[in-house]
Design a protein that fits this description.
The complex is a heterodimer of chains A (about 300) and B (about 250). Helices cover about 65% and strands about 5% of the residues of chain A. Chain A is α+β, with helices and mostly antiparallel strands and about 300 residues long. In chain A, about 30% of the residues are buried. Chain B folds into two domains: about 25-55 and about 70-80 and about 155-245, 3-Layer(aba) Sandwich (Rossmann fold), CATH 3.40.50.300; about 90-155, no CATH class. In chain B, about 30% of the residues lie in helices and about 25% in strands. In chain B, a hairpin with a 5-residue loop joins strand 1 (about 1-10) and strand 2 (about 15-25). Chain B is globular and about 45 Å long. Classes of the chains: A alpha+beta (about 300), B alpha/beta (about 250).
Chain lengths: ~300, ~250
């Protein structure tokens, strides 16, 4: 109990009031950025997994006055596909399956009997031995003019680019948050050194090493940052839960799922700890650097 | 213990506060440092407790040239020096007990070993009922005694006191001087800066006399039995006044 109290009354400094809130804001932003990156990454992975090992072939609708032409074209296309190495299956989508795909755009009550829709063929392949898509597309077009092969890579690639951009922005935010926290702690520590100059001088005069003085500051910074970090994380978790409920209400297949795995929760929980350690080390080196320059 | 050779001190571009100061204090000696207000007593003490470095000349402490000490070595050397500051320099947010224990905490001693020792020391200086009091609630004299307890708690090899009896009555002043004598008997070198001539004459120890920035050694004055303390422990030959010499 005798040695419990800190020798420097740092708790009474202005930094004790503003630093935890600033750290809370920083951790809040960093946590949301991390959640965004993790969610986006999972969404891309989900789509990528769902689409790998398949591609789609569109056979154009028949021209007016050519009944039966589309069926014949579909037969030629399926025959060519099944003759192709690495193709495991080729199934024509039923009209109600096509209707389900178009429902988000045309509504549930639309009827397609009069619409000249292309036939869609879902093709399953061996993912380890993907065919030469360019060559296959050329041969399909020869067999049935107007047939289009879609291997999903074009828009999946764009989606991956978007996910990577979001991850990059998230990483940038985390780095900026870290840098801001370091700058704030340096400022607060220098202010503390100036405010408590006489006490620090006394500690030196009774034999305190610089490391002893630094320890006072680093413990103070650790406490403040931890306090602010936990508050920021709690606000971030509340925000994520709120947004997740909004997504659930919208019930759209295009929205990502806002659910985190235990490892991802652990990564989020590490944020306040990480920022507290950064604050502690920053305070230590700031004090040692400043005192080291003294005569 | 302390050897100064032609030491001079000035603050920045100001006038020379001390000049050509040379003296040698043996380990275990007891000296008063006398001089009028502004003579440089506090500055000389600052040189001795390493708060200042000489502008010129050589100052040796514990056999080391103080100008060659690193920051780490300076800190370790300061742990062997107890200082009673003129303005006490107590930490207002710590209790009397915590203030006195501070040098022990700084030097890394364990809490359970120091609590009783510190409380006993505070009782000895007459503050048994104030060990949990904060400095702002104590009188000037009580604060001074806390400062003295803090200076001696670590059994320093060298004790430097700047007007340590300036805020207490004669009875307490004599009692505190007895405390310093006891420490001196245990081997601590003592230097007490004071302008209280009656106290100097009451205790027959040699005097470093500062005047005009220069120092002279005066031999121990004949002891007097003046003072409110009423005892005569300050008579000639009392204590263990060591040897000293001034150039």
């Amino acid at each position: 109990m005798l040695f419990r109290r800190t020798d420097l009354p740092l708790d009474r400094d202005p930094s004790g009031r503003f630093l935890p809130w600033l750290i809370a804001l920083m951790v809040y932003l960093a946590a949301l950025a991390l959640v965004s990156a993790m969610t986006m990454g999972k969404m891309v992975e989900r789509w990528d997994t769902g689409l790998s090992g398949t591609f789609t072939v569109q056979v154009p609708p028949p021209e007016i006055g050519a009944p039966g032409a589309q069926e014949a074209a579909i037969d030629r296309v399926i025959e060519l596909l099944l003759d192709t190495k690495a193709v495991r299956s080729a199934e024509v989508l039923e009209p109600d399956e096509i209707a389900a795909l178009l429902e988000p755009w045309l509504g549930a009550g639309a009827t397609y009997g009069e619409l000249p829709l292309p036939a869609l063929i879902s093709v399953g392949i061996d993912p380890a031995a993907a065919p030469d898509y360019q060559d296959l597309a050329r041969r399909l077009a020869e067999a049935a003019p107007g047939t289009v092969l879609d291997d999903h890579q074009s828009w999946l690639g764009q989606l991956l680019d978007l996910a990577r951009a979001i991850e990059l922005v998230a990483a940038l935010i985390v780095i900026l948050v870290g840098a801001s926290a370091i700058a704030m702690v340096i400022f607060a520590t220098r202010m503390g050194l100036a405010i408590h100059g006489r006490v620090i001088e006394l500690l030196h005069l009774i034999g305190a090493q610089d490391a002893y003085v630094a320890r006072e500051f680093e413990i103070h910074a650790l406490r403040l940052a931890l306090r602010g970090g936990v508050v920021g994380l709690l606000f971030a978790i509340a925000t994520v839960i709120l947004v997740a409920r909004l997504f659930d209400r919208l019930d759209s297949v295009l929205l990502p799922e806002l659910t985190l795995s235990p490892i991802e929760w652990a990564a989020l929980a590490m944020l306040p700890l990480a920022i507290a350690v950064v604050a502690m080390l920053t305070a230590r080196f700031t004090v040692l650097g400043n005192l080291g320059r003294m005569p | 213990m302390i050897r100064f050779e032609d030491v001079a001190l000035r603050y920045g571009a100001g006038p020379e506060i001390l000049r050509q100061v040379s003296f040698h204090l043996e380990p275990g000696s007891f000296h008063f440092l006398a001089g009028s207000s502004g003579a440089g007593k506090s500055s000389l003490l600052k040189l001795m407790y390493l708060a200042q470095r000489p502008t010129s000349g050589r100052a040796h402490l514990f056999g080391r040239d103080v100008t060659t000490l690193t920051r780490g070595e300076t800190a370790l050397m300061r742990r062997r020096i107890g200082v009673v500051f003129q303005d006490f320099r107590l930490l207002d947010h710590l209790t009397a007990l915590e203030n006195v224990a501070l040098p022990l905490k700084v030097s890394g001693q364990r809490e359970n070993k120091v609590q009783q020792h510190v409380a006993e020391l505070l009782a000895w200086v007459g503050l048994a009922d104030h060990i949990h009091a904060y400095p702002p609630t104590l009188s000037g004299g009580q604060q001074q005694r806390v400062a003295i307890a803090r200076a001696v708690v670590g059994r320093p090899s060298l004790l430097l006191a700047d007007e340590p009896t300036g805020n207490v009555d004669d009875r307490i002043a004599v009692r505190l001087l007895y405390l310093f004598e006891e420490l001196n008997k245990l081997g601590t070198t003592i230097v007490i800066a004071t302008h209280n001539e009656s106290l100097v004459s009451r205790f027959s120890y040699p005097v470093l006399s500062l005047s005009g920035g220069e120092v002279r050694m005066r031999t121990a004055p004949a002891a007097a039995s003046a003072g409110a303390g009423g005892t005569d422990r300050g008579s000639a030959g009392q204590g263990s006044a060591g040897q000293g010499s001034a150039a």
